[in-house]
Fold this sequence. Notes:
By secondary structure, this protein is of the alpha+beta class. The protein has 1 helix and 4 strands; from the N terminus they run ββαββ. The protein has a 4-stranded antiparallel beta sheet with strand order 1-2-4-3, with helices on one face. The longest helix is centred in the middle third of the chain and has 12 residues, at 30-41.
Amino acid sequence: MQREHRHYQEVVDALGRSLSLVSALDPEHSEWLKYEARALAHRNHPSIPTTYHYWASYDESRRGPGYLRRWIGGETV
């Protein structure tokens, strides 16, 4: 059985944009998640989601590292 490495959740910001909240389920995947967020931040294509914001984990936070990217509706490619 394949295990998920990321958690996705659609959120709508104050400007009405649909965003994807992506976070790592396992702390061991934090470096991989940071690399993914950085790679997507430098892409500009309608079918590739762009990273808007990345954060590292914080001691006070209940959520680990993650990032916000543009939500693309529909099926995966």
